[in-house]
Amino acid sequence: MVVRLRLSRLGCKNRPFFRVMATDSRSPRDGKHIEVLGYFNPLPGQDGGKRMGLKFDRIKYWLSVGAQASDPVQRLLFRSGLLPPPPMVAMGRKGGERDTRPVDPMTGRFVDAEKKTPVIIDNQPKEEDNAQDKSP
């Protein structure tokens, strides 16, 4: 039995509300669950923020015994500071080759593998090159 941490949808039409659940991977989205681990309300409240409540100790327990978080739950856990950022792959051009260098999720820049620092890549030609091309 593979345990997954995933969202179960509650609420009415056009007013979603989600619970973070530990469930068997074979059970349906809103079906049988093992444990309720928190909630997530994607609609902004009166203060303009999205509401989220998680039981950190229980989530850490399920992750330690091998439970796998779904992609939306992984993003929620990253926002709350429980998990490291998910690996991102940058895409060069539409239909082109994919760039497999890791990208820093906070800045959107490429991360140098050895130094773990963002690398700034300047793709625009320098003004000096443009001046030389225009002069006869």
From TrEMBL:
Primary subcellular site in the record, as a coarse category: plastid
- Supply one GO BP term: mitochondrial translation
Keywords recorded for this protein, A-Z: Chloroplast, Plastid, Ribonucleoprotein, Ribosomal protein, Transit peptide
The answer on whether this UniProt entry bears the keyword Mitochondrion reads: no
Q: Which InterPro entries match?
A: Ribosomal_bS16, Ribosomal_bS16_dom_sf
Source taxon at top rank: Eukaryota
> What would be one Gene Ontology cellular-component term for the protein?
small ribosomal subunit
- Spell out the protein name for this chain: Mitochondrial ribosomal protein S16
The Gene Ontology terms for molecular function here are: structural constituent of ribosome
Q: Where does the record place it? A: Plastid, Chloroplast
Q: Which family does it belong to?
A: Belongs to the bacterial ribosomal protein bS16 family.
Q: Does the keyword Ribonucleoprotein apply?
A: yes
Q: Where is the composition biased (Basic and acidic residues)?
A: 124-136
A Pfam match is Ribosomal_S16
Kindly list the organism's lineage. Answer: Eukaryota, Viridiplantae, Streptophyta, Embryophyta, Tracheophyta
Q: Where is this region: Disordered?
A: 87-136
